[in-house]
Amino acid sequence: MNIPMSLPEINDADVQAVVEVIRSGRLALGPQTEAFEALHKDYIGVKHAIAVNSGTSALHLLVRSLGLGPGDEVLVPSFTFAASVNAILFERATPVFVDIEPDTYNLDPDDLERKVTPHTKAIMAVDVFGHPAEWDAILAVANRHHLHIIDDSCEALGAEYKGRKLGQFGDAAAFAFYPNKQITVGEGGMIVTNDDEIAALCRSMRNQGRPEMGAWLEHARLGYNYRLDEMSAALGASQFRRLEGFLQKRERVAQMYTERLQGLFWVRPPVVKSHVRISWFVYVITLAKGMHRNPLIEHLQTLHIPARGYFSPIHTQPYIRELFGDLSGTLPVTESIADRTIALPFHNNLSAAEVDAVVEAVTATRV
Ligand SMILES: *Cc1c(COP(=O)(O)O)cnc(C)c1O
Fold it and tell me: If DSSP codes are grouped into helix, strand and coil, which group holds residue 224?
């Protein structure tokens, strides 16, 4: 049995969509990008969707469009993918790391409140592993202190908080389409917002700072080439039409894991709060206190079952230590959790037999 860590689901319609674009000769700045954007706009229920070439690009443009820069503090979890923090650093703003809830591993609203200072300008919230952050509490903190909010929803396309789709919360949100995400285009991302000004700035900055109406060689502001190409957009639109089916398949695989792990007292399956719809990105188990994930990951690897330590906290990474000194010990929940969380193989079409094999290997490797 050769079980992959993750696997995109590509069908003939996806292939056909990409081939048609290549044959058309129109490979950039065309109707496929507009169609892909329109699908997001309608699905999430926002005014604007702007496609870009990665989730990281989406976050970077959002940080820039809010005018965040040197001297501005941005509250962000450390228990996330590096891109959430890097987008802040690109603009020389200061990330201030916030601890997480011990059940969902999303931002802890109490610690968020505690870390607000007169320099705080924004919150970079993350919907970790596809589980919505605690949005009511985060919005309350932001309102009290007049803070902007960027939602890094790069792991949570399709998730809902109290019946509302993620992407509607905060000033703007970002999604991502790397091959391990819920839908993929290879490399790509999407900005969604109801804010006309943010949308206009992001559209301009993804396209070399060109004004929306203007000559090709007119540049209104500093910009980038963060455009999504037409092949990727066509693949994205084709994938997007199967999103609900993908989410249901992922829910089913997660349920299979959770049922089979029930008897293991030293393994905690993911926690899903009752007022959310999770969009399963990865399936992450947590080992009991006192255990460490590395021996288990290594042992699974000897059985040819891939597993990853999700996440490695950003505040203890070498490049952050170089910038801000030794921050270890400052985020007790993050540090305790991150020693014990393991992502198991997870994709739409993982079979019952494969789930059995993974759970059997986990069971046999009590360390
Ligand atoms: C995937 C992801 C991103 C964006 O990643 P890209 O590879 O740049 O598309 C950003 N934040 C989080 C939390 C992610 O998981």
Answer: coil
